[in-house]
């Protein structure tokens, strides 16, 4: 840096520090502001964030189907069933109960493998249009009734969980066949199979879910890169059934890491048990950690694994709504941000359809609330790469750097016209 530049950066930094409103608002990134180039001092716009390459590590397939898509699919079915769109942010009472009502509604629309494929393609398009370079999509495999139109009586015939996974794989392959032409890059996609705590009723039923997943992973080891533990946090099944069942299969997780929805509601005992089990179960990431007790947080900040950090999956809107806090200013992000080099943060959507959000808007809202700079946002994406379960994170890193150094061409209204020299076609309502 030349003398003039360093004087300029130095005086800008000093000015910012002398103005209490700027300095105090810039809670998240004083360090970054000191180190940042001049342009980094400007607040990031939503379109700048849209144009950055990003990763999504915490997205549930069913919850990521937009409300508009559900309405479209229902209308096409034409059996009179309707769906009234809603905005979670408008009324936050009984938030968690409403979330799980939404998943039930989605399940009433996605009732066969064709609908699953169509909705998966829709979700993949959505994330690619967000310039997401790596999507780690999670879902709990389901079985669908086979209708009589398909040549069966419709009695007890069900599709298999493996068919569910393979339909998702088919959608990914179809998406990939046109991704370069449509988006200018090929979004990498891997699957986490979810254990649903809400469906566990005994240790045996927990083992049944786990064993199904392990079987499917054996068939598709390149596609399924980890396990997610999710579901209604009010289902009190983790301590009595799920953890004992997971511990019984702990050998399997050394090569198949776990991410665990943790402390979505206040439950200190459960949180402690999960943290206690992290090493044994190879729980490499924690989802939400909204109500994680300080004692547990200190242990995680101190470090759990000798060979890497713990991924903390932040989902800003989801966390704000489920915690019923009025704004992101009170989000627990600052409990983690720049507090320890053992923490690998990621910013995610959780459920795009349910929370009416997208990846860029989640990062933008967080960046605005905590005055994060461009470098801060990029640093979080690099942490996400390091916590991804993808087998080749070096490849993701290279892809990220390549896309960072060749930003997409934007029209004056922020619409992305061209990526890496490839023209993009318009997608419904996504402006891409
Ligand atoms: C609000 N935060 C959350 N907390 C806990 N579990 C959640 C969740 N959001 C989604 N899920 C889990 O994901 C399933 C839907 O996707 P799939 O049908 O598996 O693709 C839900 O049924 C729930 O078990």
TrEMBL record:
Pfam families: A_deaminase. Belongs to the metallo-dependent hydrolases superfamily. Adenosine and AMP deaminases family. The lineage of its organism: Eukaryota, Sar, Alveolata, Dinophyceae, Suessiales. GO terms for molecular function: adenosine deaminase activity; metal ion binding. The gene is adal. This is Adenosine deaminase-like protein. It comes from Symbiodinium microadriaticum. GO terms for biological process: adenosine catabolic process; inosine biosynthetic process; nucleotide metabolic process; purine ribonucleoside salvage. The keyword Glycoprotein does not apply. It comes from the Eukaryota. The keyword Zinc applies.
């Amino acid at each position: 840096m030349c003398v003039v530049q360093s004087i300029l950066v130095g005086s800008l930094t000093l000015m910012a520090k002398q103005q209490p409103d700027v300095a105090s608002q810039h809670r998240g990134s004083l360090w970054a502001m000191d180190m940042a180039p001049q342009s980094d001092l400007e607040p990031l716009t939503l379109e700048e964030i849209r144009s950055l390459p990003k990763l999504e590590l915490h997205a549930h397939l069913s919850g990521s189907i937009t409300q508009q898509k559900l309405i479209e699919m229902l209308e096409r079915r034409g059996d009179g069933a309707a769906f009234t769109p809603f905005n979670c942010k408008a009324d936050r009472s009984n938030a968690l109960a409403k979330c799980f009502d939404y998943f039930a509604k989605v399940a009433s629309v996605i009732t066969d493998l064709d609908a699953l494929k169509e909705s998966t393609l829709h979700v993949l398009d959505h994330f690619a249009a967000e310039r997401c370079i790596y999507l780690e999509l999670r879902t709990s495999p389901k079985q669908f009734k086979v209708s009589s139109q398909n040549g069966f009586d419709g009695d007890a015939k069900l599709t298999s969980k493996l068919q569910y996974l393979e339909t998702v794989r088919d959608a990914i392959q179809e998406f990939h066949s046109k991704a370069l032409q449509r988006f200018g890059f090929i979004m990498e996609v891997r699957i986490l199979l979810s254990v649903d705590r809400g469906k566990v009723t005994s240790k045996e039923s927990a083992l049944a879910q786990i064993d199904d997943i392990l079987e499917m992973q054996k068939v598709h080891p390149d596609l399924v890169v980890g396990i997610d533990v999710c579901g209604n946090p009010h289902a009190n099944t983790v301590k009595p059934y799920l953890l004992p069942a997971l511990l019984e299969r702990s050998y399997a997780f050394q090569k198949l890491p776990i991410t665990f929805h943790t402390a979505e509601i206040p439950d200190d005992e459960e949180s402690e048990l999960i943290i206690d089990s992290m090493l044994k179960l190879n729980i490499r990431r924690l989802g939400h950690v909204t109500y994680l007790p300080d004692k547990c947080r200190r242990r995680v900040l101190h470090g759990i694994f000798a060979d890497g950090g713990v991924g903390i999956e932040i989902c800003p809107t989801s966390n704000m709504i489920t915690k019923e806090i009025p704004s992101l200013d009170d989000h627990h992000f600052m409990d983690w941000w720049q507090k320890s080099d053992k923490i690998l943060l990621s910013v995610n959507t959780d459920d795009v359809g349910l929370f009416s959000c997208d990846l860029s808007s989640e990062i933008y809202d967080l960046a605005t609330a905590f005055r994060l700079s461009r470098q801060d946002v990029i640093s979080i994406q690099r942490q996400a790469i390091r916590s991804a379960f993808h087998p080749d994170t070096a490849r993701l890193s290279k892809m990220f750097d390549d896309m960072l150094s060749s930003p997409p061409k934007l029209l004056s209204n922020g619409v992305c016209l061209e990526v890496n020299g490839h023209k993009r076609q318009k997608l419904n309502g996504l402006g891409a």
